[in-house]
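Technical note accompanying the year-one report. For the benefit of new consortium partners, we illustrate the data format agreed upon in the data management plan: each record pairs a sequence with a structure-token string. No post-processing was applied to the example shown here.
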Amino acid sequence: MENLEFHLINQDYKEDEKTLKSLFDKYYTCLLLYANSIINNIDTSKDIVQDIFLKLWEKHKDFTIKSSVKSYLYTAVRNSCLDYFKHQQVEKIYIDHSLIEMKEIELDYYDKLFPTPNEDKTEIYLKEINLAIESLPEQCKKIFKLSRFEGMKNYAVAKHLNLSIRTVDTQIYRALKKLRQKLDTYLSCK
């Protein structure tokens, strides 16, 4: 096993496979615990460690490790964890920006739909809004209703429907966009 610390490349494919399996068996659990100590999410940690071994296998023919394999693997886990955190930051900025955009669009609708507290107009507007909502695609309509009428947060809708939060955000954005398109023509005539 000591040879593994210095050489990973062999001329024989089966020998390479055996070598990588030995590395996986020897280091997987320790690397998983290390990644989890950084990220504090076991599923993400498993993905990171498995990706490292996958990349190692994909590049094993062109690959030379100058230091020990152990050192290389721990460094790879550390760097992948840092990349994961950077990606999370970018994703959070994108989601925050999308939520702000959606709220602005929503407020625009409310301003156009309820300019004065006239009951007759309000009833007509509500009827048109309901017709527009009912014309949405089924999943989009279901997500929109849970969010706006049931008062569920996007993450709760996602969990309830077994969808990703991004899917829920996108569907609500699309619903608001379609509602604006349908209602703009109606409101501009009134």
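Partners are asked to follow this layout when depositing records. The chain has seven helices and no strands.
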